[in-house]
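Subject: sequence -> structure tokens, single chain

Hey, anyone have a minute? Need the predicted structure for the following. Not urgent.
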Amino acid sequence: MTSPQPKPFAFYGRISTEDNQDPESSRGWQLTRATALIQPHGGRIVTEYFDVGQSRSLPWQRRTQANTLLSALRNPRRGFSAVVVGEPHRAFYGNQFGLTVPLFAHYGVELWVPEIGGPIDPDNEAHELVMSVFGGMSKGERNRIKLRVRTAMAAQTLLEGRYLGGRPPYGYTLRDLGPHPNPAKAADGKHLRRLTPDAQTSPIVRRIFDEFLAGYGLFAIAEGLTANHVPCPSAHDRARNRHRSGIAWSKSAIRVILTNPRYTGRQVWNKQRTDEVLLDVDDVALGHTGVMRWNARDKWVVSKEITHPPLIDDETFEQAQALLTRRARAVDRQERQRRARNPYVFRGMIYCAVCQRRMQGQYNHGAAYYRCRFPQVYALANEVEHPRNVYLREDALTDPLDEWLASAFTPDHLDQTITAMCDAQPTDQLRPHTAASQATIAACDAKLAQYRAALDAGADPALVTGWITQTQAERTRAEADLQTTQQTEPRRMSRSQIADLVRALGDIATVLRDADPTDKAEVYRQLGLRLTYQTETQTVRAAVDLSAHRGVMVRVRGGIRAPTRNSCAPIGCTCP
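Reply:
Had a minute. Here:
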């Protein structure tokens, strides 16, 4: 009589960056709990899904491995008939259980949890209540951690003036104060640090305050520093500012220095906060995303005592703040409010081809314009080949662009447009890193299958378990590398996906013909429109981005005309 075949299980676990645990150790104990639950029932784990470095607040659809597991549920040949979770606190957060378990029930896949002692019964109110409690406990635990950390950091700043990390402000560098007072952190090699004046840049900070109080404007100060060949903050510290040009001092850099109370010798914390906002207000199940925002000055935590050598005294700092306030009040508030109410159809969509910066909206004589004043923002930037002012009138672009869109997205031409969009996408050629990571994952999967077969054949469990652990660690690293690489790789969409996106926009021709500027701007936003203005040729390259690279050139100002279907294809061409 043959023994029954073991029931195949998939294992799911998770560890986030907020955990002070080694990923392999965390995976090990979660896997041990899951195995202990299913072994008495003849279960055997045949595949694993383990998320590393992703917060529990992310819904399953936004976690890499969890989403892969949900996709596997749809496959009748998935290779497992049940899923076991080692730790519900790490798997489910808030109401995630209620949003996830219906999928398991729909595809007939059992979900096993140690706290239930077996499979969850979707129709059992007690099971649902228990899992809801665990979701609430998980959310409460995360909130308590955040509260404790923020309270501790506020106290350390206010009472101790401790430097809590981050890059030092311009004018300072960091000095080592010895091992961290927390024994665990000290054993891990962490040290306390303190701000100390930088010999090269601290005199520049004093110069900025002196010149500002002497009556110089922000741009005049920036102009003088650049003329004296003083490197701006991003040029002084290129290692941490590779994303910035470092070409010259800007008015914003001067303003940041003038408003930073750290130069008085006091430590400051909580200048910014991270707000959690809904990723999609129309789909709450997608969860939240973090958005960095500035706090008001009364929310900043400033140390009571001087904690590092000051570059300026308190009186100088307060005089600078008062002068900044007076100058800001000198601006006509009613004029600013009137300008803010003016609609800009292409707000945030037009870029200058010379410097690749967004062009700013400006009303002039009742008409909307977009301008790039690169030389007016960065001192002496006219050393770069950039016009002093680049202007583009909005109504010179609106009509030819609308005519092109209307012709390209009418029902008669929609199939042709979708085909052109699909053909214009980059080919599915894998980058070397992606191919290497996928090859490593495939090799690890083959090894794991061999090791499990060896276990079934009676090999030494201790020896084989070591092999499995080592291979799984290698697979986890390859998956992390693959995820990082894929975030920057262009992904090719299918024709049906492009068609669904385009048709979801509705009758574009009708909308553009009768719409007010707000509705037009929304259509352009949903199309992923990006406009690049070339001032020398007075042309605008209009790119419609549905996760691919497409574009068309239209002429503006003198000799305006829209491209026609006969002269060029609706997507991916250049008109003279």
